[in-house]
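User: Sequence in, structure out. Go.
Assistant: Echoing your sequence, followed by the C-alpha cells.
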Amino acid sequence: MLQPKRTKFRRMQKGRMKGNAQRGNQLAFGSFGIKSLESKWITGRQIEAARVAVTRYMQRQGQIWIRGRIIFEADGVPFAVAKEALRLAAQKLPVTTRFVVRRDYVENSKE
C-alpha cells in the first residue's frame, strides 16, 4: 500500500482539488506513459492494482515509474507491449487517461 512511513498526525486533511498540474505533465523518465485527463482522488489500492496489472503483462521486463499527473511511465519494452500494459492499468483507475509517447522515441528493430 502506498502511504508515508511516518507522519506527524494520524489523520490527513483532504484538502481540495485546485485544477490541472502545471508541472509534471510531460514524460520525464520513460518512453511511454498514461496521463490523467481529469482531477480525481486516486487511492493507494487503485495505484497498486494498476501497478500489478502492468508488471504482470510486461512479465517484469523493462522499468516502471509511478509519478503524478503522468500516472505511470514505462521503458525498455516494445511499443505494443507498453500500450497494452498501460491500457490494462488505465482500466483499474477512476480517471480518464491518454496513452502518451516520448517525442523523440524511435522503435528499434531489436526489441
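User: And one key feature?
Assistant: The radius of gyration is 15 Å.
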